[in-house]
Amino acid sequence: VLEREAWESAIHARKFRRKLDKLSPEEAAGLPGGETRLPGELLDRLQAEVTSKYTEMLQHLRTSWLFQKDGTMGWKIMDQAMEKMKQLAHFAEDIAEDGIAPKLKPGEIDRSNAIGQALKKALEDVRTARERHLKLREDSEVRKHSGLVINLDLTVQQEEYQGAEIEGWLQK
Q1: Over the stretch 45-71, which tens digit does the pLDDT of each residue have?
Q2: All residues at 6 or more sequence positions from 79 whose CB lies less than 8 Å from its CB, including other chains
Q3: What is the reported pLDDT for 60?
Q4: Separation of alpha carbons 96 and 35, rounded Å
Q5: Within a 10 A sphere around the Cβ of 37, how many other Cβ atoms?
Q6: pTM, full prediction
Q7: What number is the average pLDDT over the span 16-41?
Q8: Closest to 35 (Cα-Cα) out of 104, 100, 101, 102
Q9: Which CATH number fits domain 2-171: 3.40.50.300, 1.20.1260.10, 2.30.30.100, 3.50.50.60?
Q10: Domain residue spans in the chain?
């Protein structure tokens, strides 16, 4: 956990330094103005990612509470839910920086009561999301926004770790 937190912090520091270096002294001293910088189509794609991450996070929260009695498994799933909350915040932040309030509307939540089925669904979700984020990261419009690329790099790295972790749980 500490190693993961360390590389996340390093990525955040790099992102914040890039943002700060782009600001004039007046801008650096002020508050975000909500100026539009992203095209509508990209904002729509980011909103879809907010919805997807919100659904994944809620799914993990439900699963973690459902299996809380199963030793540490519930807590491990809860840890991933917290990571998903951070990922959700990254996508929502990019929308909010354009002065738009992100919509938090969940998609369909799986109501499985079997841990194996719940973990298979979680693995499918994280793999699908990672593939989507790898493609999004290569989008020509996304590449114009270094902060968004950095967030996607972090998200992809976390999703890779989460997928491997879930695979390990399924093998036990």
Answers
A1: 999 999 999 999 999 999 999 998 877
A2: 1
A3: 96
A4: 10
A5: 13
A6: 0.81
A7: 71
A8: 100
A9: 1.20.1260.10
A10: 2-171
Separation between Cα atoms, residue 89 and residue 27, nearest integer Å: 23
How many Å apart are CA 18 and CA 54, to the nearest integer?
27
Look up residue 120 and give its two tokens.
């298979």
Q: For 77-115, how does the pLDDT look when each residue is reduced to its tens digit (9 = 90+)?
A: 999 999 999 999 999 988 988 888 999 999 999 998 999
Query: With 0-12 CB in 10 A as exposed, 13-18 as middle and 19+ as buried, what is 42?
Result: buried
Tokens of 113: 């009561």
Phi, psi of 38 (to 5 degrees): -110, 140
Alpha-helix residue ranges (DSSP H) falling in the chain: 2-22, 25-29, 40-66, 73-96, 115-138, 146-171
State the amino acid at position 21 in one-letter form.
D
Give residues with Cβ within 8 angstroms of 56, minimum separation 6: 84, 122, 125, 126, 129
Dihedrals phi, psi of 119, to nearest 5 degrees: -70, -40
Torsion angle (degrees, nearest 10) of CA 123, 92, 1, 137? 60
